[in-house]
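Team,

Forwarding the record for the chain on the shared tracking sheet. I've put the sequence and predicted structure together so nobody has to dig through attachments.
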Amino acid sequence: MKENGHVLVIGAANLDIKGRPDLPVERGSSTPGTIRRSLGGVARNIAENLARLEVDTVLLTSVGDDDAGARILGQAAGSGIDISQVLTLEGQRTGAYMALLTENGTLDVGVDDMAVLTALTPAYFHGQRPLFEESRLAVIDANLTPEALEVVLQLCRDYQVPVCADPTSNLLAERLCPHLPHLYMTVPNVQEARSICGDVFAEADREAAQAAAAHLVSLGVNIAVITLGEYGVVYADAETKGHIPAIQTQVVDSTGAGDAQTAAIIFGLLEGFPLDECIRLGVTAATLTLRSRDAVRPDLSVDLLYDELVI
């Protein structure tokens, strides 16, 4: 990895609409609860977390010329993210994600509207060659079209830029399968790992997850990190493997916790820390985010991360 340069984060930036019921949901009927709108998108969340951890970060995404797009760009710039190459599309609506949470704050079901991201074409990415050349590391989410994904990974190979990939969802995770040998790190949850690994990950227990992480490494991924929710995280590379238990905490909202984990792991890798310490940083950042109503904890900082660090 290069010693200098920015982290290039590529993928979704959208408006999150989240409903959390006060009572068990009865299908086909209305349930009292709380509905909130906030900023989200896997790539945007990771970029903001990185910026709050004092990492030089450039975001490549597309938004509409609407209120949501303006809000996303204004907040990103205020967080220290370079948004100079973000596409703002006239007459288009900014991406949106609608989530129904459980009473405990975990995801029940979600719907995403990401049509605006089709503007991130191969031609657009070819026009960003200088940004790829100057990058220390690239982070992508699987919202990119297969054609765009192919070009992004080729540009990263051209300029020897390591790539971290977030599978994003069960359906989108399969887009990463042809590219596993070219990934520096991938960070699926249990369901996404099953989409990638198939029968190798038939069970959801820790032992099976550890085998799935090792399997991803055998397929060419340098670092595999699989999130097990309340059971913590397993990880593997060519030399090590391990498990970090989850920190017991009150869950206000689980949205964005995985993105915070990814960003903190990347922060550790950029600093040259051992992998197990990087994973501890990630679990800590995820826990801090679980306690927040926002997809990115607004007071996240390097000092806060170390104050709460998992031992």
